[in-house]
Design a protein that fits this description.
8 helices, binds D-xylitol-5-phosphate, binds zinc ion
Length: 234
């Protein structure tokens, strides 16, 4: 099943609890939580305190944490304790990616491997048995609102093929960066099953009486597009 994961990076941080409630009520399946450290990527976002605040606020939906943080191992447990269901790491940000993925699983969360647009797909091969999902970056990490890099479709197809042909068909493929209503169908056709979108959802123009209805309009349009490109996909 296709899952839509709004990235909180594009939300109104002053109203974060309400923003997350609104996108979930609008039909989002999970919440994508981008963590940037001003070292591995040139931007600074939020840490585990904000994640636990969302849980305390009453958010029960799955939250996947995308760690753009170097070094990464020490902080993994803090995010799981704060309420992450899934945690993705970048192999370039870890001295020992195999160990980082194992730490995530030992903490009881799903382990994701994030592949930048310039990272060879072969990096995944020795880590196949340690990875629950691949996070295909369709922009260079660090900022929301960037344009989708078209080469990401071919890379997504190649990763999906590698997973299926190596006996890891249960491993998911999420795509992250520049996902909009007009390209989400192609990403689905390329084999992505989880679609992360920040600015396309939280940045939608205000038209309805409530933000919740604005978000519902985009999420529904995204599902329609996925359904048009993949049979039984949405
Ligand atoms: C980029 C982040 C993405 C980003 C998505 O470093 O990992 O999750 O926030 O935002 P949009 O959809 O605006 O590209
Ligand atoms: Zn992300």
């Amino acid at each position: 099943m296709a899952e839509i994961a709004p990235s909180i990076l594009a939300a109104d941080f002053a109203r974060l609890g309400a923003e997350v409630e609104d996108v979930l009520a609008a039909g989002a399946d999970l919440i994508h939580f981008d963590v940037m450290d001003n070292h591995y990527v040139p931007n600074l976002s939020v840490g585990p305190l904000v994640l636990s605040a969302l849980r305390r606020h009453g958010i029960e939906a799955p939250i996947d944490v995308h760690l753009m943080v170097k070094p990464v191992d020490r902080i993994i447990g803090e995010f799981i304790e704060a309420g992450a269901c899934a945690v993705a790491i970048h192999p370039e940000a870890s001295e020992h990616p195999h160990r980082s993925l194992a730490l995530i699983r030992e903490g009881g969360a799903e382990a994701g491997l994030a592949l930048n647009p310039g990272t060879p797909i072969s990096v995944l091969e020795p880590l196949l048995g340690s990875t629950d999902y691949v996070l295909m970056m369709s922009v260079n990490p660090g900022f929301g609102g960037q344009s989708f890099l078209p080469g990401s479709l071919e890379r997504t197809r190649a990763v999906r093929r590698l997973l299926d042909e190596s006996g890891h068909s249960k491993v998911g493929v999420a795509i992250d960066g520049g996902i909009k209503v007009d390209n989400i169908g192609k990403a689905a056709a390329a084999g992505a099953d989880t679609f992360i979108a920040g600015s396309a959802i939280f940045g939608v123009p205000e038209e309805a009486p409530s933000r919740r209805d604005d978000y519902r309009r985009v999420v529904a349009a995204m599902r329609d597009e996925i359904g048009r490109h993949v049979e039984g996909g949405a």
